[in-house]
UniProtKB/TrEMBL annotation:
Keyword Lipoprotein among record annotations: yes
UniProt xrefs under CDD domains: ABC_MJ0796_LolCDE_FtsE
Gene Ontology biological-process entries: lipoprotein localization to outer membrane; protein localization to outer membrane
Organism of derivation: Boseongicola aestuarii
PROSITE patterns: ABC_TRANSPORTER_1 (PS00211), ABC_TRANSPORTER_2 (PS50893)
GO MF: ATP binding; ATP hydrolysis activity; transmembrane transporter activity
Protein name: Lipoprotein-releasing system ATP-binding protein LolD
Record keywords, A-Z: ATP-binding, Hydrolase, Lipoprotein, Nucleotide-binding, Transport
Domain ABC transporter residues, every copy: 5-226
UniProt keyword annotation of Nucleotidyltransferase present: no
Protein family (similarity comment): Belongs to the ABC transporter superfamily.
Amino acid sequence: MSEALALEGIEKTYNPGRANALTVLSGASFELAAGEVVALVAPSGAGKSTLLHIAGLLDSSDAGSVRIGGVDYTGLSDARRTAARREEVGFIYQFHHLLPEFSAVENVILPQLANAVPGAEARAHAMALMERVGVAGRANNRPAALSGGEQQRVAFCRALANKPRVLLADEPTGNLDPGTSDTVFSALMELVRETGLSALIATHNPALAARMDRTLRLEAGVLVSD
């Protein structure tokens, strides 16, 4: 399988050179193959969110490299990194972060418009994604009128709207009750598998981790594969 995402020798220290310096990544490396879904497991505060932000080009490392689709983005301009975030990477967080003033379908359309997708095409694609995860009937509702599970499913659709190469998810069901979490995670996995997406999904839930292709553990700043 071809490589979708690769991190090599990633190091990150906050407040370097100070008494309160905190090293969270110490040579972290891994490869994510095309179509592979991998669980990222680590205790709170171990640096998994930092790792995801570096992998998704939201943050820079102190050392090491990040490749997406074989392209090394280390040291490239902010414009190139911004374009890659928009076109190559989809993000999902524990909280949905939907824009409250827009309807559910508009939240899924907006990222596509930023990528110059024509309005009619963007709406059709948004509705197709929402149909796949069972929220098409709520398309015209604003986020406040949706349940927590519905909001997160819309967030999934928004993350996949621009057909990214890689999906990065940080505790995507961590804000939901166990029953809703299982249902919503199943919807996410179906969507990922159907689209052939590569995904790195951080979770504290061992049952959810077991449903993915393999598990990476972040231990003392280094990634260890189960």
